[in-house]
Design a protein that fits this description.
With 299 residues, the chain is of the alpha+beta class. The protein has 5 helices and 16 strands.
């Protein structure tokens, strides 16, 4: 990590207007990936992994990678590093045992039936890796460049999030949509003019790469995720994003980036990742055991 990013305070303290939201607050850590030259000993997006030389590199063994792909390739495909996060940098991570590094990889092709890249998670203990793989295999083909992240350093920043409007009960959602509800101390004119939009865009969930927090629903209504082994409700682990801000979310732009041309796509997407072109891929894990399979969802 060699940069700092600071999210501005929210335009209004939403819990001052709606105290019933306070118990629904969740911590999240924005990662703020920015172009850099991370090493295997750093937290990163798209950077080199602390991968032991004596451990096989993961491959996707789907029989064919297509037909939705721009390129057709038969046979295994080397998986691509997506993120490496050290617990020292991202303390929200619940590491199993003595592990202190989370590594995320994916196949650089969208797979049916959900048309998303299959992901693999690995936990390891950094001190146990003495010989690091210097030249991991590269995929023989990729569906498009958006599935090969540009190497980025990260600047983890802890924030507080509140639920997507779709995660709220009907009564509270109706209150958020009412102009009169916002005519209270602490509410500003923007909230009064477009209360529901202001809550969804500026006061609830942060856009971009993050650990924890609330799910960014939009493509679908909320979908409960349950562990296929024990049935426990699964928890959001990591949001992999196609942009850190968009035209409706400039209030989330860190102070350090506000002088940039914010509407240029590459500025808002330093890793140049595109999930199904412009969406998010959210990874969920079982809170009962890290050995249980994770799952993912595009939103």
């Amino acid at each position: 990590m060699n940069h700092i990013r600071t999210t501005p305070p929210r335009p209004v303290d939403v819990t001052a207007v709606f105290p019933q939201l306070a118990p629904l607050a969740r911590p999240a850590i924005r990662l703020h990936p920015r172009p850099g030259a991370p090493s295997p000993h750093d937290s990163s997006v798209g950077g080199p992994l602390l991968w032991p030389t004596d451990e096989p590199w993961p491959h996707c063994h789907d029989e064919s990678h297509g037909p939705v792909a721009d390129e057709w390739h038969e046979g295994p495909i080397a998986m691509v590093p997506v993120a490496q996060l050290y617990v020292r940098d991202v303390p929200l991570l619940r590491a199993p045992g003595q592990a202190d590094v989370l590594q995320v990889l994916w196949c650089p092709f969208e797979h049916e039936p959900d048309y998303k890249p299959p992901t693999a998670l690995f936990w390891r203990t950094a001190a146990e890796v003495t010989d690091v793989l210097a030249a991991p295999p590269e995929p023989a083909a990729v569906e498009y460049d958006g599935y090969e992240p540009e190497p980025c350093t990260v600047a983890p920043e802890r924030i507080t999030e509140y639920p997507n409007p779709l995660d709220l009960d009907r009564e509270l959602r109706q209150q958020l949509e009412g102009v009169r509800s916002w005519q209270a101390p602490g509410a500003d004119d923007v909230c009064a003019l477009a209360p529901n939009d202001s809550y969804g865009n500026d006061l609830s969930m942060a856009p971009g790469w993050k650990v924890g927090g609330w799910p960014p629903w939009g493509l679908t209504d909320p979908i409960a995720r349950f562990c296929t082994v024990c049935g426990a409700g699964m928890s959001p682990l990591l949001t992999i994003a196609s942009h850190e801000w968009d035209g409706s979310g400039h209030s989330w732009v860190p102070y350090e980036d506000q002088s940039l041309p914010l509407d240029k796509p590459d500025v808002a997407n330093p890793p140049r990742v595109h999930i199904s072109r412009t969406n998010n891929l959210q990874l969920y894990v079982c809170p009962e055991s890290p050995d249980h399979p994770h799952t993912s969802l595009i939103q």
